[in-house]
Amino acid sequence: TTTVVLAYINWRGLALVGKMSILICVVAMSPFVILVVVGSFKVDPSRWWILPDADVDNTLAAMDDDIAGGLLPNFSPAGVLWRPFLNNLFWNLNSFDSAGCLVAELNSTASFVRSMMMGVLLVVLGYFFPLLIAIGSLDSEQADWNDGYMAVITTEVVGPWLGAWTVFAAGISNIGLFQAELSTDAFQLMGMADRGYLPEIFSRRSKHGTPTYGLFLGTVVIVAMGVSDIDRLIEMLNFNYGIALLLEYAAFFKLRVSRPSLERPYRIPLSTLGCALFFFPTIVSTVFVMSLATYATYYFSLVACIIGYLLYAARRRNKQGRFFDSMGNNRNNDFVRVADELSFHDEGIETVEETEGVTNEN
Fold this sequence. Notes:
The chain is 65% helix and 0% strand. It is mostly helical.
């Protein structure tokens, strides 16, 4: 019932979701701001350098197939279970590029880059400082850090009222995560349908401007996956997201080399070699996290990639038919216009100059 209600709110439009998300952000972040302010006076910096001393052998032996197994063996230097730790860390800090699925709804992209940079900074700080204060202000063992422990910390450091507020904030933040995920997934499906990579039914908008069938499919998938194990879901998400990131990086460098003069809404102020050095740590980290996956995740991702390739092949064969017809929505947006130019150029449909002429005529 909750999922259906939240999906209905999403269907009512991005303006409502945006206002709701701002309110949720304020409520969800406020207890951690209070923790940082009050807890900073109780911090003992020596606690930051204490390594875990828990015996992880029994934990490793008890791991089920959702976490154990894969190309790399389980490893736990310094008492840390690195496979679940890195998977959870990667999961908590990824999906920034999902905002690109909504950029076509903007009248101008001028503020988009600034907002993304501020968002990345705020998210990193929102994790770093609360954890820094939590570790430094309270004596705790590694085994204490399980679900809900931040509420215990805020209770001990500030008071029971903040502990209750933290639990409420954690619950309401899940609503914000749900809304953001459902919106970006639905608009991504609509964008793919607009470009002809999915059936045109996904490009149809409701009277509120939202992709009805994309929201419906996303809701069905969320309900179906809601009974799955969270560790397996995180690992599968990380692996497939890693593939997407590597493809994005490859496309970035290909365009840097093959289309250096292409008009871009934003250009990274570095040379191609500078960009390569800048992206190198990220690419290595992404590949390493992907290597931590279990065999079940590899099989799942292989099937997903095969399905994706079949859809792409079907689009190539049926691009003149109605099933994969391009609806031509949102062509005035800078990002969409550039993507259209590249698509037409690469597929030999039209030259860049001809496409710009058609756009200007429209």
